[in-house]
Design goal:
The protein contains 4 helices and 9 strands; from the N terminus they run βββαβαβαββββα. It is an alpha+beta fold. The chain has a single domain, classed as Glutaredoxin (3-Layer(aba) Sandwich), CATH 3.40.30. The strands form 2 sheets. The protein has a 7-stranded mixed beta sheet. It has a two-stranded antiparallel sheet with strand order 6-7. The longest helix has 19 residues. The two termini are about 25 Å apart. The mean pLDDT is about 95.
């Protein structure tokens, strides 16, 4: 199956997920002033995700100060997503759950099959999506994306803060937009 990539400056797919704190996150309904930062993670079974999301929670106030709304999303069910939110002491970070694998694929995320229990003794779901980080403009168009086939070597949130500062101060456009023949 060919893997589809989203295009910068073009609309991203819909995203509508339940939140562990109650209510729903509907992309575009109440966008961040400058951007929405969507962090798709593998699930409760992933110790690397927990460490990554701890850092995102630590920096959530920095993103908020820049007008960036931050949401972590997985295909975990409510219980597992709630456990992850508790694990990272979520307060500034919203946790969306129940992402369908069809929606994950629309976002260009890779899907993996279970390998059983992980190093922290939690079973992987039968199928789950690999990580992706997306920055979406309030108009629903893609500004930045990083999609991975593995849980390792993810974009660092401190680097993304610097990139957001630059993008805002210089009115830097989304790049990678050329769709013509090469």
């Amino acid at each position: 199956m060919r893997h589809s990539a989203l295009m910068p400056r073009y609309p991203v797919p819909a995203l509508n997920v339940a939140l562990t704190a109650g209510g729903r996150f509907v992309l575009g309904a109440r966008p961040g002033e400058k951007f929405d930062l969507l962090v798709f993670y593998r699930g409760l079974h992933c110790p690397i995700c927990a460490k990554y999301l701890l850092e995102l929670e630590r920096l959530a106030p920095e993103f908020a100060a820049r007008g960036v709304q931050v949401v972590a999303v997985s295909s975990d069910d409510e219980d597992r997503a709630g456990q992850m939110a508790t694990k990272v002491s979520a307060s500034g970070l919203q946790f969306g759950y129940g992402l369908s694998l069809r929606a994950a694929r629309e976002w260009g995320l890779y899907i993996s099959t279970s390998r059983g229990k992980t190093s922290i003794g939690i079973d992987e779901p039968a199928l789950f999506s690999e990580p992706g980080v997306f920055i979406v403009r309030p108009d629903g168009t893609l500004y930045y994306s990083a999609v991975q086939t593995m849980p390792f070597a993810r974009p660092q949130f401190q680097d993304l803060l610097g990139a957001i500062d630059f993008a805002i101060s210089k009115e830097y456009p989304a790049r990678g937009e050329f769709t013509g023949e090469v």
